[in-house]
């Protein structure tokens, strides 16, 4: 299938960029001081304070004998996904996935023609459908993400992510990833960090493609979830996806999700919105050298510019806390040489 | 502290046994056929059918170019804990932990003197307390595992596991681990498997010590859980443990827990009771070479002998399924040369 070939080739490209960063790194370990000689692990980052803060943190916690040294097993780094690792404008990809699913499933649900939020959606009125707020949104997500088993859902996601296009750039969603963040995750892994995604997005919506897109395997993805039930279909064991929310991994839910899935506190956390505030607070909330970073979307030309008043990826309180606490705030426009692997919006 | 020294030394011993098995292994990779020449990775296993089934499975899935070859990333192995990795007789260790906690907490709960199941417990009548069945048990677990934050609970578990003694052998619980299973987990890891614990026991009861005892880090432990809530205590972020069950990771819950935490299906699963049946079915429930093993407790002299009628670790239906399906059933008495690192009960 063409779409799947394209997906694979995009992913390969992303992986290769990541590997390129890694390839330059091994020399770092025997002689951390000669890092620059061995090549820049973060070539898409300008030489600004953000980049310096990242590399200084990594050098401090990885230097044997340093008072700030952190054993490899404890080098846990957590990344938000939407707006931190890939673009979230003009709408979360998972919502677009859900809207596409509504269209696919509509023939099986004649009642949707007269039931909100589906009726509005099917008339193409997304704004009207979402006027119902979070309950409407939850209804859409629950209805479109349940009623099949886990293997079937996995395939549905793979088919969609391999063919659906971003409404503005017309790129595959897996192309809408941030090149500097690919380099950053690879740089951390090359320094023996274990990288996790900790997202408000659906855990089973992300897992089918995060390894290819970011080098982060399914067992290192934490997200929101629906309930599943073990059943025997004839004699075959399946996990049926139920129309019931299990856990919302957002805001104060993120430290809860981190504790449930990882059982260790991250020493570095990366986000971009108020939904990431508590994760960053949790990472910073103990002694020792800890790192917290917010991606601030400041580049309307190459990406999008938004913060305090955005309905998607609102960054308000967390920005104030970050500035008060001296966390690293990435100014996308000035800190990033390149935005996407393909360039700019 | 003496108790903590002892814990560390026991753990070190367990780790060393595991490492000893690993140390002999690297030669396996370049030339799998010469495994025996390089040393036996499972020295505490007799040369019976069980051992042969394990090594044949590992050789098939790790041999490059073989039709049964499984890429390293997909080599997921899941292990039950109680009765599979360590002894569960005469009572689950976590229950003994909870009973000890009841005694510690009693002064703070004068009402327990007249409230069941606590009243019976405080009179030393464990049997009477547990006559209330699962609700009584849940009440004990919930009351003793909540009301503190995650960091405090972690320390409570570490203090207990470092000093509490098995009621029959008077050994530390971390000594009551099965030497052949330590070798097996190390053997799998040496063959690029990722080993997970998937237990009905409490996830936060296991995580503080599984890395030292088994070489399995916290992020690879799946278990039953209580709810937690993110809070700021003054300005310090904490995860408060609430008196509410979140998830019971037992029986049909095990595939659900595996899917939630790992997001991949194991290619090998190891258990010992009916509570592991669905996990083993899930592992075996797709095409390709898959491995399922039950530890059958048949050695009353060196350990304990129990199966169909046991109240702890009942093995009834799963034994029938295992025999009908040709799963590997370990006969502890005949298959294991040695039971515990220190010898026998």
Fill in the keyword field for this structure.
alpha/beta, 40% helix, 8-stranded mixed β-sheet, homodimer, 345 residues, 13 helices, 8 strands
Descriptive overview:
Chain A is an alpha/beta fold and 345 residues long. Chain A has 13 helices and eight strands. Chain A has helices spanning 2-23, 49-62, 93-105, 118-122, 126-130, 133-145, 150-161, 179-190, 203-214, 253-261, 277-284, 317-325, 332-335, and strands at 76-79, 194-202, 221-233, 236-247, 268-271, 291-298, 305-306, 328-331. In chain A, strands 1, 2, 3, 4, 5, 6, 7 and 8 form an eight-stranded mixed beta sheet that branches. In chain A, helix 3 (93-105) crosses helix 6 and helix 7 (150-161) packs across helix 9 (203-214). The longest helix of chain A is centred in the N-terminal third of the chain and has 22 residues, at 2-23. The first copy, chain A, is globular. The two termini of chain A are 27 Å apart. At the A-B interface, helix 9, strand 3, strand 4, helix 10 and helix 11 of A face helix 9, strand 3, strand 4, helix 10 and helix 11 of B.
